[in-house]
Design goal:
Elements lengths: L1 H9 L7 H5 L13 H12 L11 E2 L11 E3 L8 E7 L3 E3 L3 E10 L9 E4 L2 E10 L4 E11 H4 L16 E3 L3 E10 L6 E2 L12 E14 L5 E13 L4 H4 L7 E8 L7 E8 L3 E3 L3 E10 L7 E15 L16 E16 L23 E10 L13 E12 L7 E10 L14 H8 L34 H7 L8 H9 L2 H14 L15 H9 L14 H7 L60 H7 L1
Parallel strand pairs: 2-13, 4-13, 16-22
Antiparallel strand pairs: 1-2, 3-5, 5-10, 6-9, 6-12, 7-8, 7-12, 8-11, 12-13, 14-15, 15-17, 17-20, 18-19, 18-21, 21-22
């Protein structure tokens, strides 16, 4: 560690910048704007064999005119790596214009007595897309985006134990470090454009990887290496649905005319058209067909066939122009493989109805001689189909073949319509907005546990209605208006609500503790208005139940109060077991003996009472609402 500190102090006079770090003697995993041969060689070293195993002692030749003695080895190819890295994304499917979230693990192994102290540089996260043919012997990178670990993760500095030297290396803390990251996939400005993924044949594929790499340097020996690790993923392009799915300016149309075998001198004309060029994988593709039958035979069959053409371009250096330094992309040998991936057949049904039947077989009646017909038919596109434009080695295109025939022995007539297929993720990507800082702390397991005072007690909760809205306390001044006119007010200020509901938490908890220990909550029964003593009020608070039917209007204590009023209130007499009570005199204009809240289930009058006038509002002071509010 002393030698490391001396190395850092000796270089403290230099100003480090990313531009100077790029000029260091370290090699790089993927060189920007590299030649096709160098790009293929770098991919071969990075990916390893078919099992992702690296060749022992694998190294990368430095960029520029540096000798092979200055080559950079791969840390993962060593028998005992000093630095090990790993990247764990949250998902394996990404869309251009979205974010890649995940976790990076970096392990700095403690050094032994014979080993030197290691320095590491700021890590780099890459997303690489490449195409491969000939059993992945030929590769080419068509898409690449990268970001430094310090820009992708706000906790990258927790890994470092010193300021950077003139080459941008830091002293790393020993141990295992898990760092969450978020990487944005730019819509424009990156190297290339993603195309999606597909593997049409063995040895031919479009692949993507997300990779983490960290440069490593030993202080005493000045040996340099790169620790890297990658995982496979998928990256899809981002497309504008309003532009992609809009109808084409002109119909995509194909026409053909041909005479049928033993069909006379007349010809059969076939015209098929599509109203747009782009279609989504997995959907039904609509084809409009027009048939003009001038032959003597009836057209009985229609077939829609989706054909996939895979074109492989094998580079051939011998075909390059002599004396040219640049590689000619057309100097190659091509091979095309065509395969049928989907089909939809339509057969002629019964043309004339059968006596005694209300329907007939099929919906298409074919095309008889001297008849012209227009109709539409559909074909289901495969969910994994995708059109891949050529970058260098590979191209995948689709064509829709429309075929009509008059029978098994007659000749066929067909036309080809070009079609381009996109993936649904390109027009409707999943949400991938980056998490907030609190979410990152939780992801790291560093979220602070709540204090004891912050944990709500079991009985200290805010009562809520059936639809989740908070019950509003009633005031003595407007209790009557709210009960009879249905003037319900809902609490909208969360701060005032919290102050109002939790101001008397301690007193309520104390009362509940004493009451729950002696009695169990019971039904209110037919308690009358004159029984609103302390025990009744406390029971109303603890045993309140909201009618789910009228919960959206907000349950209130007034509903409970008026729904428990007995019938024949003016003539109410207490039973022998009840406490002696004095009923309140009825209002002078009262014709209905039952009081009810307009928001309770009991407020709905029977059919016989619809013609009766509404009860007048009772007058006189009532302490029920005030006592409920105090409790």
């Amino acid at each position: 560690m002393d030698s490391c500190a001396q190395s850092l102090n000796s270089n403290s006079t230099f100003d480090w910048s990313p531009e100077k770090a790029a000029l260091s003697r370290h090699g790089t995993l993927l060189t920007a704007n590299a030649t096709p041969s160098r790009n293929a060689a770098e991919l071969k070293f990075i990916l390893g064999n078919s099992n992702a195993r690296l060749k022992p002692g694998a190294s990368i030749v430095p960029v520029g005119s540096l000798s092979s003695a200055d080559s950079t080895s791969l840390e993962q190819a060593k028998a005992r790596a000093r630095v090990e890295v790993d990247v764990i994304p949250e998902t394996n499917i990404f869309v251009q214009g979205g974010y890649i979230h995940g976790k990076v693990k970096i392990r700095i192994r403690p050094r032994s007595r014979t080993e030197s102290t290691v320095l590491i540089s700021d890590g780099k996260i890459r997303v690489v897309g490449f195409e491969c043919i000939q059993n992945e012997e030929k590769r080419h990178t068509f898409y690449q985006q990268s970001v430094s670990l310090s820009d992708a993760s706000p906790f990258a500095e927790l890994l470092l134990d010193s300021p950077p030297d003139n080459e941008g290396f830091y002293v790393a803390k020993e141990g295992v470090h898990a760092l969450p990251f978020s990487m944005y996939l730019m819509l424009e400005g990156g190297e290339g454009t993603p195309k999606g993924t597909i593997s049409p044949h063995a040895g031919i594929a479009i692949r993507y990887i997300v990779m983490i790499s960290v440069k490593v340097r030993e202080v005493e020996t000045d040996r340099r290496s790169i620790a890297h690790f990658y995982r496979n993923c998928e990256v899809w392009p981002r497309l504008n649905p309003s532009a992609i799915l809009s109808p084409a300016a002109q119909l995509i149309r194909g026409s053909a005319a041909k005479s049928l075998f033993m069909g006379g001198s007349g010809k059969v004309g076939l015209t098929a058209s599509l109203h747009r060029i782009y279609w989504v994988a997995g959907q039904q593709c609509c084809v409009k067909v027009r048939i003009i039958n001038k032959s003597k035979k009836t057209i009985k069959n229609l077939t829609l066939t989706l054909l996939r053409s895979t074109v492989a371009y094998r580079p051939s250096p011998s075909l390059d122009v002599e004396g040219s330094d640049e590689h000619d992309a057309d100097a190659c040998q091509t091979s095309t493989v065509q395969k049928q991936v989907a089909e939809s057949a339509l057969e002629m049904g019964q043309r004339d109805h059968t006596r005694g039947h209300a329907s007939a077989k099929g919906w298409w009646a074919g095309v008889r001689p001297e008849e012209t017909t227009e109709f539409c038919h559909f074909i289901s596109l495969p969910s994994d189909a995708i059109t891949i434009p050529r970058a260098r080695l590979l191209e995948i295109a689709y064509n829709l073949r429309v075929t009509v025939s008059a029978g098994p022995l007659a000749s066929n007539i067909h036309v080809l319509l070009p079609i381009r297929i996109i993936n649904f993720l390109s027009i409707d990507p999943p949400p991938s907005f980056p998490r907030e800082e609190q979410g990152l702390l939780k992801f790291l397991g560093q979220e602070a546990t709540p204090e004891i005072d912050e944990i709500p007690e079991e009985n200290n909760h805010v009562p809520r209605t059936a639809n989740g809205r908070v019950l509003e306390p009633l005031f003595e001044d407007d209790a009557a208006d709210a009960e009879y006119e249905g003037d319900v007010r809902l609490e909208t200020d969360s701060e005032s609500l919290s102050e109002r509901s939790f101001s008397s938490r301690s007193s309520l908890s104390e009362d509940l503790a004493t009451s729950n220990a002696d009695i169990q909550p019971r039904q209110l029964g037919n308690a009358i208005a004159q029984d609103d003593n302390d025990e009744f009020v406390q029971q109303a608070i603890t045993a309140l139940k909201i009618d789910t039917k009228y919960g959206e209007c907000g349950g209130r204590f007034a509903d409970l109060y008026y729904s428990t009023m007995p019938e024949n209130l003016p003539h109410q007499t207490c039973s022998d077991s009840a406490v002696t009570c004095t009923p309140r005199p009825p209002p002078p204009a009262q014709t209905d003996s039952r009081l009810a809240s307009p928001h309770s289930a009991s407020s709905i009058p029977p059919a016989s009472d619809l013609s009766q006038p509404k009860p007048a509002r009772p007058r006189g002071p009532s302490s029920f609402a005030e006592r409920v509010q105090q409790k």
